Amino acid sequence: MRTEAAKRVELVFTLFDANGNGVIDSDDFDLMTDRVLEAAIASDAGAKAAIRAAFRRYWTTLATELDANGDGVITVEEFRPFVLDPERFGPTISEFADALSALGDPDGDGLIERPLFLSLMTAIGFEKTNIHALFDAFEPDATDRITVAAWSTGIVDYYAPDKAGIPGDELVGAQAG
What we know:
single chain
């Protein structure tokens, strides 16, 4: 696994531990889902249902694949080797990437404006400075919009253990403390 990918894994674990108790559990995914849906006020019911289902699948996949002792929580040690395994986790990531990027396009024009991107990524827990750097790395057009496809691909790439120098590396840039 590349160093960049390892840094991305550590950040994702921290974000998924939405309640800050040091482990990931179903409550964390409920909390994150609620925060993202709150930020997606302009999205339709279908897009909201899709992101809710994607978060639910994400948790279910983690719990099924990693919770060997059945205690209902995922530790960072359990999380590290799994999340960057495309064979085991790829379909879950693809579903999540499609749902989240679609949520950023409530008008269906295939483009995501910076303010909504910022709101959704902040709801997940990323640092604003890094969110702006990520958005810029996606090379927005003259009206400060990126494509849904670019964001979806960027999410999938974020979880690839062999990738470096990708836009998603901007998210681990200057994380606060």
